[in-house]
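Shipment paperwork, digital attachment
Item: protein structure file
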Amino acid sequence: MKTRYKFIHFARLTRTDWICRNNKTNDILGGVEFYKAWRQHVFTASGVAVFSVDCLLDIADFLKQLKAENVVHAPAVCGCARPAQPELCPGDSAG
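Attachment content:
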């Protein structure tokens, strides 16, 4: 999984949470967390951080990677003991 981009990088905090930092200053720009109501990761900016279109595209790319790799499905999130297969999760309405 790509975690380093031209101006920002992501570091894992927990199984489902990440922190976004500036490559040059290492300042915290925001965080990525699993939003249970939407069953997906979301980005929350810190303070008064501002982002260019390139950074926003990188953030979106990172979120897409998390979704594609089923990182969003973890026993710590949904509470089930099934493998990382969202379609088998009893917490999903379709499963």
